Amino acid sequence: MSREAGPVVARTRAELAAARAGMSGTVGVVMTMGALHEGHARLLRTAREQADHVVMTLFVNPLQFGPNEDFDRYPRTFDRDLEIAAAEGVDVVFTPTPAEMYPNGEPAVRVNPGPVGELLEGASRPGFFHGVLTVVCKLLHLTRADIAYFGEKDYQQLTLIRTMVRDLDLGVEICGVPTVREPGGLALSSRNRYLSPAERETALALSRALRAGAVAAENGEDALAAARKELEQTAVLDVDYVVLTDPELGPPPEHGPARLLIAARVGTTRLIDNAPVEIH
Ligand code: PAF
After folding, report:
1. Predicted confidence band of residue 3 (pLDDT cuts 50, 70, 90)
2. Quick check: 179 and 60 in contact, CB under 8 A?
3. d(CA 132, ligand 1 centre) in Å
4. Average pLDDT in the 229-239 region?
5. Residue to probe by mutation, ligand 1, list 30, 40, 61, most atoms within 8 Å of CB
6. What is d(CA 211, CA 230) in angstroms, rounded to the nearest whole number?
């Protein structure tokens, strides 16, 4: 365990447990895979405002990457991440190795995300949500957090984590934090750094489509049609899905709050975005 001008850096479960034992009052956790950006900073700030202590986990979880995905090239920027954690007043950064996290190798028992985990991201990335929920469940146990903060940018992930906590009685509060966007509308994501300047321009179509959908929300079909029209105007975008759901990812309502979700590939980078829509 080391204190490097800021947070305590815990690399093992024992170091985390020792740091956690010294905390009284509420503990907020922000789980990350590193490559921090302003979206993570917003999560950390929210945790700092609401909880007495803030633990940040930094772990690139191999379980949630498919064989042809970007686990090896996922950006790893530890020193910069630690600076951001320090600036946001994080108390402890837990950054285990895969062997520390999974001492018996890949876990034989994993959290099953259920039917919602097979849709959308789950359909494109088989096993993804089993990997996410398994690591989130383990990190909730290891940190013994009272409140956990997740970005709305990964809306399906947030929804499934809420369901897991409810269905498995995990006894932790889940707080969703709104997406942070660049001035042009692009949702912040660690994977944005894969985009070339031209691809960044192309990627703006996602947030434009969400805005178009929200404006056209006289009914669900109009909202979807407006979003699709906007995306079709950007030929180099390879759209995976554009869907309208209720806020729990069920069938869209006739009236009231709904969610518009988009996934598309720009070059080799897969991007997702979503926004609330009020159906009139
Ligand atoms: O959203 C992420 O960065 C990851 O899915 C999470 C929640 C840290 C689990 O590895």
Report:
1. very low
2. no
3. 6
4. 93
5. 61
6. 10
